Amino acid sequence: MGLLNVIRRMALREKLPIREIARRTGLSRNTIKKYLSAGTIEPRFNVPARSSKLDPYAEKLAAWLKTEAAKSRKQRRTVKQLHGDLVALGYTGSYNRVAAFARKWRVECQREQQTTGRGIFVPLSFRPGEAFQFDWSEDYAVLGGERTKLQVAHIKLSHSRAFLVRAYLLQTHEMLFDAHWHGFRVFGGVPERGIYDNMKTAVDRVGRGKERQVNMRFLAMANHYVFEPEFCNPAAGWEKGQVEKNVQDARPRLWNPMPNFPDLASLNAWLERRCMELWREIPHGTLAGSIADAWGSEQAALMQLPPAFDGFVEQSKRVSPTCLISFERNRYSVPASFANRPVSLRIYPDRLVVAAEGQILCEHERLIQRSHHLPSRTIYDWRHCRTCFRFPWRTSDLSVATCTRWTNPPACCFSTKT
Q1: What is the pLDDT of residues 14-40, one digit of tens each?
Q2: How far is CA 70 from the centre of its chain?
Q3: Which residues of the chain have a pLDDT value below 50?
Q4: Is the pTM of this model over 0.85?
């Protein structure tokens, strides 16, 4: 490039003849004429296309590299192994040629992922009352002096971007139903449709495209509140990007520093108040005013809130001879007249209801123990045994370790079996 600059300066600025330029540079006159007539600033050398021994195997090697890229790192074949497989097919070239092909293939794939492979996205827009988005996250809080892992439900209106965050100990059906009720209660109505990912509490099976086998209990809840559930494509979180962003923003706003409350009910009451305060503080971003202003105008487009969905999950249980049923490692008492008989257990987020023969037999406060290191507990209600002449447990069963908690304990003494 420096020599070409010298030739151009001699010819164009110093006006030297070609013969003199050839004498000074040692180049032939034909070479100097070619450079000057081409008008190039830097020389270009044409590299002729050369055939390689790898050309007949290029397509197969590219297919192998694509297959190996989809595997986990520990399961992939190395380039040396790929070279050995090509040799077995008749390849007579060197390993270096195969390694150079693999490097070039990876660079091209990386460039494609950073350009056309990233896809094209169109910003979503929603009219008032059209949709809401729902998602779960995991966060921590101090409840009763103990650091507790929580399953946090996020529900967000897509137009006004009003949101509610509610914490639970589990991510089960009854918790999902309860989160929807509180969300619609706070929003003041129900939108037309809900946007979800393919969570197991809502989708039993994911089919091709948008085909879904929706859980029947979840569908009953959607029919009760009269909204249409829609499910994102697998691994396509951008289809409900508003609530995904809400999960990210909620951590510095609500969970850092870690909230400290005596129980879960107090935490959820604070979360509800804090969310509504944030509506007034956060600007909408697209519409004029805050989130609270946009929510106020969207309320008229929401369907009137129906009564709460009876969101329980039902299980069949058989009462033991000691008038107990087991649920989540804990035992609960049942009226003695139903000992050794089947009953129906209705599971709510905060209570357990036992029913049989079309009537409610009893109700217990639900006890959820996340730690498997704690012993199981037994919850008795003394009224369940008042029809018995003799207490149906041995004296050893009445120890403090077994009788963890009594509901309304009697003042009298019971006789025990010997």
Answers
A1: 889 999 988 988 889 998 888 888 776
A2: 22
A3: 389, 391, 395-418
A4: no
Strands 378-381 and 330-333, sheet pairing: parallel
Residue matched to tokens 């300066």? 9
The C-alpha atoms of residue 300 and residue 335 are separated, in whole angstroms, by 49
Sign for the CA dihedral angle at 82, 83, 89, 93 comes to: positive
CB 379 within 8 Å of CB 330: yes
**CA 338 from chain center: how many Å?**
43
DSSP per-residue letters across 127-163: -TTSEEEEEEEEEEEEETTEEEEEEEEEEEETTT--E
Backbone angles phi, psi at 402, to 5 degrees: -90, -50
Q: How far is CA 41 from CA 1, 30, 124, 244, in A?
A: 8, 18, 50, 53
- Phi, psi at residue 193, to the nearest 5°? -150, 160
CA 227/CA 221 separation, integer angstroms: 9
List the Cα angle 256/260/262 in 5-degree steps. Answer: 155
Note whether 191 and 197 are within 8 A (CB): no
Instruction: Of 338, 332, 337, give the one whose Cα is nearest residue 404.
Output: 332
Q: How far is CA 51 from the centre of its chain?
A: 50
Q: What does each C-alpha distance from 251 to 128, 151, 217, 248 come to in angstroms? A: 27, 13, 31, 6
Q: What is the pLDDT of residue 117?
A: 64
* Helix (H) / strand (E) containing 109: helix 95-114
Angle between helices 173-187 and 216-225 (to 10 degrees): 10
89 class by beta-carbon count within 10 Å (0-12 exposed, 13-18 middle, 19+ buried): exposed
Please tell me the predicted confidence (pLDDT) of residue 400. Answer: 40
E strand or H helix that includes residue 346: strand 342-347
Residue 390 identity: R
Is residue 180 left, alpha or beta, with left meaning phi > 0 and alpha meaning psi from -120 to 50?
A: alpha
Question: What pLDDT sits at residue 43?
Answer: 64
* Terminal Cα distance for the chain, rounded: 108
Cβ atoms of 282 and 290 within 8 Å: the answer is yes
Length of the chain: 418
Preceding omega of 306 cis (within 30 degrees of 0)? no
